[in-house]
Protein 1
Amino acid sequence: MPRIYLDHNATTPPSTPVVDRMSAVLREEFGNPSSVHHFGQRAKALLDEARTQVANLLGADPSEIVFTGSGTEGDNIAIRGLAEALEPTGRRHIVTSAIEHEAVLNTVKALGRRGWRTTLLPVDASGIVSPDALRDALADDTALVSIMHANNEIGTIQPIAELAAIARERRAVFHTDAVQTAGKVAIDVRALGVDLLTISAHKFYGPKGVGAMWIRRGVRLQSALTGGKQERGRRSGTENVAGIVGMGVAAREALAKMREEQARLRTLRDTLESQILGRVSGTARNGSAEPRVANTTNISFDRIEAESLLIALDLEGIAVSTGSACSSGTLEPSHVLKAMGLPAHRTQNSIRFSLGAANTEEDIERVVAVLPGIVEKLRSLTRAPVRA
């Protein structure tokens, strides 16, 4: 029986057009984009084309796109680069949320160890950052606000345009980690009102090891790397031409298919979610139903350890997740679910299902068919009653 992959928030399989185009570039276009001769200029033209394709996905100008090696690198360049640039001004306060990806949280913590004042905004059970909470947290020395566009574990979409407007009132720069929304949600950086935005190719059927940043023209940013002048001095190092080309192809495909594909995934996701909640006792959805990315549901299963359920499903050929792939292998409860104030048992018994392009109605039917039996078997190993 074919395996079912329901972990697309961790990574997506590169599409056939992406693989084909990257293969051709690897074979035929080996030039260094910084070289002035024929081979280098051919490579530079490929970068320019990909830069335009990524810019189109974000409603941006190509000149404002900087290619990176990952979403994590982009988050670091945004936060550390801005901190370095603004440190001499005396503005040494950073605001972020308690449910950010570790790429943001750990970078902010690192700056805290350097003497920066940091504030983590709380969320309630909805998983949504309150605009009022941000307004109360801002101060005259606030340099940067970094709030993710959508959460990687529960899928909730934050009110970024409203949050960015509040930050702008206090002259704070606003960064959003849009790794989980690029290719899934229509993004217009001008409408969002942000100053910096980070994305990663492998989350929308592009290659791993390639990301991009949108940096609003005029934003002061200190380069995180010292070296050459690549990417207009924002990110030194010879560009990964084949990977960037793959990202451009993935961006073009995502933009063309987005509306239709997200409607399809929302239908599948809602069917999966309603069937699990209706057929398996002691289950609950984590986070707000809307606004949420169309492919994601996070469900807690009472009296079951998430890791045990994940393994049992994998033995049935169904791949799911307990949360962020960057935190896998730890025994710590989800920091996202903890920040939402959920009971301790729910922070450790929750499974994320994140759907993607290859998933079908038959996949959902199979998951719903086998899941109740797996849950019943795992629960039979404990004596505690199911919580209401």
Note: The mean pLDDT is 95.
Protein 2
Amino acid sequence: MHVLAVASQKGGSGKTTLAGHLAVQAELSGNGPVALIDTDPQGSLSEWWNERDAETPAFVHTFVTQLDQDLQRLRDSGMKLVVIDTPPAITSTISYVIKAADFVLIPTRPSPHDLRAAGATVDLAEELGKPILFALNAASPRAKITTEAVIALSQHGAVAPAIIHQRTDYAASMIDGRTVMELPGANRSAEEIAELWDCVRQHIQANVRRAPGSPAGKLDEDVTRARNLAKAAVAGAL
């Protein structure tokens, strides 16, 4: 089971919208079963889920203090993906969530304020040793600032090539518990979400393969250990 945290200290970055959309897209792509967790006191994600007619994704009510235990229960039950929405501030809640996550998605609008605010989330993820991926959200098509934002963010981590553009489809779909993939005529928006999920999925899998204890991760550890021993032997011989 993979745990994806959607985090950003900037309010209005689109965390809740992307969390719900990516969870639904993961189910549609055959990467489920998927569960959602809302740790934002505003409860926007849980309100959206309560409006849904579809049975998937599942929703789990939990508290940060029992997050680890509930994640283990979900893992034991056969859940494949858990997507966690977080509050719009760097709080102890976000620290708990990121610590429990395998991967952190940081939605960022292409604006100077959002770009500056992303730094605190990046610092926290790096401190806890968690891989990150930036997702540009609510971008204006062909706007110069979108390209500038990609360049700026790439200095701090990977940026998803799938850009989510500013469209009313996203807000309209969230009103009654749906996503753009479930709206008629929202083809371009649906394609963006599908591309973003595919990118997120690939990054998660790539990082899991390199995680300590995995076959590839174990190989990396062995190689690093061998190199360190070789350096020590050379140093001792000089």
Note: The beta strands are 2-6, 34-38, 58-59, 81-85, 103-108, 132-136, 158-159.
Protein 3
Amino acid sequence: MPSIFEKLYRMGPASLLFKAIIVAIVLDALLLAFILLRRTYRKWYFKKRDARVYEFRQRWHALISGEIPFETWRKKPFDRRIVEEIALDAFEAAGPEESARLLKFLRNSGLIEKRIFEARNHKGWRRLRALVALGRTRAPEGIHALAEGLRDSDLETRLASLRGLARTASPKAAEEILAWLGEAKLTVPELPLQSALVQCCAERPQLLIPFVRNAQGPLREVLGRVLGEVATPSLGPDLLQFAGDKLDELRASVARAMSHSNSELSLNVLIDLAQDRTWFVRLRAIVSLGKQSDDRAIPVLVHGLTDSNRLVRLRGAEALVGLNTETASIFEQVVALQDRYGLHAYLTALENAGLRGRLESRLRDDARLSQAQKDHLFAVLQAGGLRVSEPATIEATPKSAAGLL
């Protein structure tokens, strides 16, 4: 009696098709078995994890206070990961007192030191995971380990380190980022770098000054934008060197820093910047002049109502309305501009501030105006507009203006 192999041999080419069908059936069966086994395992794993999470949650206060010895869970990788995840998730919504308690728990249990060790000695995805966890702790002792990750050859690792340093919001983290930029220049996308520096330099913006002065190219633009976001009045004297800089962001940062300085020098600088060629530099200068509340800035603010950019006109109008003196005189100057866009901006700011009644009262009581002038001003105020010989030119407002409002 011939064997099965002899029968297959006699089938000729058809035997190859039969063998392929058998192999496909076997592979499909193995794949199905793998899928079922994986689903079974995952179901068991998540059930076990949910049970342990529930147990830890029931005893959470005793766990982080140390009443339950750390040795009962720290030597078990499964339990240790669960405890760490719960603690890090709690950081996201914790207040100052709770954050301090959680950080103390992570230190006393050795979880922070473990992540520091992993961030310095592991490679690849293990190092990436350690850097992410270390950044979420916001622990100052982890800054050096995170800074070492900035020098990794992998872009994802560098970004994880950068985001971790940003979470600390520490000037020490800013020093590490700036030192790394001095070595490696710009090796990460601009937005994550800018966000990290804004958070870390908010407390000590003066750290940026020497780096901005010496940086070149795209890096200088990024540092200039950061300086424009974090600049404070205390930086005024240091920023004067950038008042005539060719970089728009630096001139804008100078205008922002001068907002609370009432010196003659700062007023002159802001008046010059209010005539700048770049719209957001003029915007920052107009806003700063409004915050100074100096009557000497009235002519510049009135001229700002004729600006080609809508945001500059609106901010100029708000600054004029915010002044508590010469309301009638300012309105007379606004009408004399014969610019309907400037007039609309001023009347809108007046309505928003609820000061229209005060302006009407000032117009009635102003002795220097003739009755004909008062009637004309009241007519313009009531009509909310005027005729002009030529329409003003309107400059399109960039979408990025939303961040300056």
Note: Residues 387-405 have pLDDT under 50 and may be disordered.
Protein 4
Amino acid sequence: MISEAAPAKINLFLHVGARRDDGFHPLQSLAVFTAMGDVLEIEVAPALSLAVQGPFAKGLEGEGDNLVLRAARALNSQGAKLTLTKNLPVASGIGGGSADAAAALRGLCRLWNLDEAGLRDIAAGLGSDIPACVLSAPCFMEGRGEILRPLLSLPRMPVLLVNPGVAVPTKDVFAALQSRSGAEMVLPQGRFNDTADLLRFLETTRNDLEEPARGLQPVIGEVLAALAALPGALLARMSGSGATCFAIFADDGCCARAAEKLKRAQPNWWIAPTFVPESGIVHDDVGQEIGPTADGL
């Protein structure tokens, strides 16, 4: 049996450009991945099948052809039994479905000893977020999400994820979008030495989808206000098209205490303290950069 993590993706910022002729919006974003997420277990079987379990399995009931199965079929799949433990809220702006599909692509390539050279192209054909989720390491995203540049370094960051349990369809958020930052920002090199360094950059950015999402679901504004008011919160922002929001904290203890305080005040919200692992570029013995790594994923 092969087990693949499908970590939650956070858009630390998200700038959107005008709609292209192909219907997609160009974007710029900084995507990072947390230590928590869904888990996909894969084993050889006579036919392709998918079972879903876990706290958010109900959200996928009746979805006979979800992204996990579509990803498997995109690899001209042989038989495999897939078991998805759904720990993340469904359609919540933290890439749950995309991360699950990416885990299927990586895991099935391992199971069947397939060449992964064309995996990113297959991923891009399945969805805009899936190439970044295949990488599952901090990266700048451009184009419609398929153009990726891994960060040179990123510090470990405690984060608190909060979802108020409301649906915000992505198409409705884009339809309500009025103000765009565009996708022409000159992005930095991507070497953030500490959290303060990262926060200075993030102060120059925003999530363009936050305003229309709040218009559709005002409770998102309540979540952001609650996060910003927690002791030790350094930045509060919505991820993706919502409704999940996040706050960055200085240390794990502060994040855990904030989570407990918010759980007492809002027992019906999904509240999950986690962290973004430290990451950077691996160097060989002669100092040549050979690729990204994400410690703890």
Note: The chain has two domains: 2-150, 153-276.
